[in-house]
Amino acid sequence: MEKPWDIQREGRRWSVDDALGRFEMTPGKFEMSDGRLFWSEDERLTLLALLLENVGADAAVRLGDPDVWRAAVAALPRVR
After folding, report:
1. pLDDT tens digit sequence for 17-72
2. CA spacing 20 to 30 A to 73: which of 9, 43, 58, 66?
3. Measuring CA to CA, how many Å separate 31 from each of 2, 13, 28, 52, 62?
4. Which residues in 47-72 are b (16+ Cβ under 10 Å) and which e?
5. How many CA atoms lie less than 13 Å away from 3 in the CB half-sphere?
């Protein structure tokens, strides 16, 4: 099931109505297995999406090499 992410360029605080539901989506505990945080890709992506909602895409793309971000966007399938 696709989760209803609202990732924008600027981060946002969750409303009172959204906050508890979003918090309940977080993995139960931080753990590492074979050099990866959390047990599953779904847990990793869920936490990433939650953080991106809070900090925004503009902050995220400043964390690494801009060429890597550009290449990732360029590789997205074209929607017509």
Report:
1. 989 999 999 988 889 989 999 989 999 999 999 999 999 999 999 999 999 999 99
2. 43
3. 24, 26, 9, 20, 26
4. bebbebbeebeeebbeeeeeeeeeee
5. 17
Distance CA 24, CA 8 (A): 21
The CA–CA distances, whole Å, from 80 to 8, 58, 77 equal 22, 25, 10
pLDDT at position 1 over 60: no
Kindly state the DSSP code that residue 63 receives in the 8-state scheme.
S
Q: Rounded distance, CA 61 to CA 71, Å?
A: 12
